[in-house]
Input
Amino acid sequence: MSNWSVYLSGEIHTDWREQIKEGAEALNLPVTFSAPVTDHSASDDCGAHILGDEKKKFWYDNKGAKVNAIRTRTLIEKADIVVVRFGDKYKQWNAAFDAGYAAALGKSLIVLHDPALTHPLKEVDAAALAVAETSPQVVDILRYVIRGELAG
Output
């Protein structure tokens, strides 16, 4: 059985990534996970830290976004499956962009969010092959698509 590459994008304020990783590990699924840099400060500051400070916030953020895009684009392009989690605490424009990028590349897209976000995310959900409400549902999807097994 080949190894599957799964990119975990989106919300960084809960342990949803760990739940999916632990669930896949417990099932011994042949999956390699990747993700964006989830240290918020490092992600925000990487461009200016590496390439030099900027006085204007626009250029400061622009440098960071471009450096982060090297990682994000590369890992999404290499992924077999892209999971994008939307939380309810912040507007995650970057997560929506990742979902759109993955869809444009024809990647198998799983969107993960609370039912309360169904209406604002209807276009994103329409591009996804599955819309889950919980991390265990994502693990069950991985089990099914990789092994053809339903949870007992």
